[in-house]
Amino acid sequence: MKEFYVSPLSERYAGNEMKQLFSPLTKFRTWRSLWIALAEAEMELGLPITCEQIDELKAHRNDINFETAENREKQVRHDVMAHVYAYGQQCPKAKGIIHLGATSCYVGDNTDIILMAKGLRLIRKKLLNAMACLAKFAEEYANLPTLAYTHYQAAQPTTVGKRATLWLNDLLLDFEDLNYVLSSLKLLGSKGTTGTQASFLELFEGDHEKCKELDNKIAEKMGFSACYAVSGQTYSRKVDSRVLNVLAGIAQSAHKFSNDIRLLQHMKQIEEPFEKDQIGSSAMAYKRNPMRSERMAALANYVIINSTNPAITAATQWFERTLDDSANKRLSVPEAFLATDGILELYNNIADGLVVYPKVIEAQLMAELPFMATENIMMDAVKAGGDRQELHELIRTHSMAAAKTVKEEGKPNDLIHRIAEDSAFNVSEDDLKKIIKPENYIGRAKEQTLDFLHDIINPILEENSDSLGITSEIRV
Predict the structure, then answer these.
(1) Could you tell me if 125 and 132 are in contact, meaning their C-beta atoms sit under 8 angstroms apart?
(2) Tally of CA atoms within 13 A in the half-sphere of 376 that contains its CB
């Protein structure tokens, strides 16, 4: 059926696991799991709920009767009560204790936390795989000299591998942020209509300890260490903002990576993968457009901008709750996860298939390196008895002339020849060529790369080896 809008996030970009996680089926099965956890906890704390009722609820945990719920919602205009009704139709013995003492946010908010936690774990796995791809690439090219760029102007050389560690370090920061936020997530629990647990205090006949224990039991049954100690009817909407800020951080890192790859591809130094039968342009058949990197940047822009949605929502909530968060959350949170999932699918695909052209890298480096070697040349000439100030002026004059030849006449850089011809430097062209070997100008780039991988990245990858080895399938 093609006559209705379908989100590209679900049709083209996100992976199946993430799409299944934010599906209606997963959502409503989680609601039912929460209703079961609530009933079990209430039974364990002494309310008149039977094992038979619990077993009936468990028997219908997964077979959601969607049509019944949808028809009921048309009548009552309330999605939670529609699903309470639908569940009760399947569980006549337990019908009277479903959702006992709870408000809508018991299932809505707790489910949101559960899905975001699971979503972060999926993101974490793909993030680790992107880090592994970059680590492999950085190690392979740790010692391949290349021009570095500041202000997108040629600068002191680095290595291809060292540059990759900059991308990798950004992902490391994202990984650390993700781990922190994931470890800090708690359930809302069963707080009631304004967060006071008044309905549960009445159910437990004024027993405050049982109200506290109810939250603890629900958290444990749903796989969490705790519930938030205080809340209004909802958990603080700052939680959503914190989660989406992590996703926006990943998007920022990916966008930076995509920018660099596109610039490198323009210079013909490094290219993103390109299939045998892939078409780069409908008009220009020779082109190899960096469409993967471009798509990554597009999705990253979306995630970065989307992160303002929960920020604004958190800032504009009234007292114990208003409902202007609901429609926004239904859009912004799942779509942030789907888009970030798509970003990391692309990141893994690109990082695992980068094509490097060492000869082009060398040629472009050697065209600029004579300018960068001038200080070393000048120092050697001073050691041989030359005057530093006079030599500095000669170097400056020769450099300007050589640059003019390159820019205005389109000729190769002849600075080395000019210096060799100048008797003030007393050095041959062959000796100068020995001075301007690229490996003499990369500093500790190789050592920094290998130390970073050995000391920081590899231990993380080894600790999480069970998450590695996934492959990314993308639609291009």
Answers:
(1) no
(2) 17
The pLDDT of residue 108: 97
In the 3-class helix/strand/coil scheme, how is the chain assigned residue by residue? CCCCCCCHHHHHHCCHHHHHHCCHHHHHHHHHHHHHHHHHHHHHCCCCCCHHHHHHHHHCCCCCCHHHHHHHHHHHCCHHHHHHHHHHHHCCCCHHHCCCCCCHHHHHHHHHHHHHHHHHHHHHHHHHHHHHHHHHHHHHCCCCEEEEEECCEEEEEEEHHHHHHHHHHHHHHHHHHHHHHHHHCCECCCCCCCCCCHHHHHHCCCCHHHHHHHHHHHHHHCCCCCECCCCCCCCCCHHHHHHHHHHHHHHHHHHHHHHHHHHHHHCCCEECCCCCCCCCCCCCCCCCCCHHHHHHHHHHHHHHHHCHHHHHHHHHCCCCCCHHHHHHHHHHHHHHHHHHHHHHHHHHHHHCCCEECHHHHHHHHHHHHHHHCHHHHHHHHHHCCCCHHHHHHHHHHHHHHHHHHHHHHCCCCCHHHHHHHCCCCCCCHHHHHHHCCHHHHCCCHHHHHHHHHHHHHHHHHHHCHHHCCCCCCCCC
281 assigned to active site: yes
Among 183, 225, 281, 465, which one carries the catalytic annotation?
281
Alpha carbons 417 and 132: distance in angstroms, whole number: 45
pTM: 0.92
Distance (Å, rounded) from C-alpha 84 to C-alpha 104?
10
Strand partners, 355: 271
How confident is the model at residue 216, as a pLDDT? 97
* Residue 1: C-alpha distances to residues 4, 6, 15, 67, 91 (Å): 7, 10, 21, 20, 35
Of 474, 453, 475, whose CA–CA distance to 132 is shortest?
453
pLDDT number for residue 280: 52
Q: Answer whether 234's CB lies under 8 Å from 325's CB.
A: yes
Tokens in use for 415? 């600075």
Told to judge if 83 belongs to the known catalytic residues of this protein, a careful annotator would answer no
Separation CA 31–CA 83 (nearest Å): 9
Token duo for residue 107: 């299932």
pLDDT along the chain (476 residues), means of 10: 85 93 97 98 97 98 96 95 97 97 96 98 98 98 97 94 98 98 97 96 96 98 97 96 98 98 97 66 58 96 97 96 92 97 96 96 91 80 83 87 87 84 83 85 96 98 95 72
Burial class of residue 404 (count of CB atoms within 10 Å of its CB; 0-12, 13-18, 19+): exposed
Cα–Cα dist 221/274, whole Å: 48
